[in-house]
Amino acid sequence: MLKNKYTLWISLLVVAAVAFGGGMLTQYLYPTPGIAKPLTVYGTDEQASTVQTDLYVSFDSKLNQTQQLEKLSTLISRYKFCDLPIEIKSIKDGIATVNLDEYAWLKAGNTPPSIPGCSGKSWRYGYFQGSAGGYATTVTLTRTFVQPKYPGNWIKGVQFYYAGKPIQDGDWDHIKLDGVITSQNLP
């Protein structure tokens, strides 16, 4: 009887694995109309020692590349950076220019609104500080925008600005967002 019980469980696990694998394969063999290939939102583990995939996201295939980048920037702003402004300024020769800015109330020196888990957060004093936090910010922004493993047509690289000015080497100790970043020179 025990042998049959284990055989049943093993059989169920094998069937589930095959069904799951088959479903994953059919996603690429028979893509859903109107949905583009999935983009990856990257991040790090809790110790900021390993790059990992945090989320896959697909947008309507009718959106052009700029619109997809804008939606991606809105998503990672909300999901990873407490809704701090991330704006796609332009795409020229395959290089996207992305401006990271502070909340309007922070620039004006006003009292911050109460945002659960985000009080007092800013690029300068939250996400660009500390070696682990700066590395996590660098990984999320560079890899998510560059999409190094994306199988389709995507941008060649990205250049980051902070408050309307290009980020330069040495501006901050813990982030590597300077220059044009491509899949060949990801930090």
Number of helices: 5
Major β-sheet profile: 5 strands, mixed
The tally of structural domains comes to 2
Question: Any low-confidence stretches, pLDDT <50, length ≥5?
Answer: 22-31
Shape: globular
Helix content: 25-40%
Structural class call reads alpha+beta
The counted number of beta strands is 7
How far apart the termini lie comes to 57 Å
Give Rg in angstroms.
20 Å
Give the averaged pLDDT, no decimals: 84
Q: What is the H/E order?
A: HEEHEEHHHEEE
Describe this structure in words.
37% of the residues lie in helices and 20% in strands. The chain is an alpha+beta fold and 187 residues long. It has 2 domains: 1-30; 33-182, no CATH class. The protein is globular.
Short description:
With 187 residues, the protein is an alpha+beta fold. It contains five helices and seven strands, in the order H-E-E-H-E-E-H-H-H-E-E-E. Strands 3, 4, 5, 6 and 7 form a five-stranded mixed sheet that branches. A two-stranded antiparallel ribbon has the order 1-2.
List the helices and strands and how they pair.
Blueprint: H1 2-29, E1 39-44, E2 51-57, H2 65-80, E3 86-92, E4 95-100, H3 104-107, H4 123-127, H5 131-146, E5 157-162, E6 165-166, E7 180-182
Parallel strand pairs: 4-5
Antiparallel strand pairs: 1-2, 3-4, 5-6, 5-7
Notable traits:
single chain, 187 residues, alpha+beta, 2 domains, 5 helices, 37% helix, globular
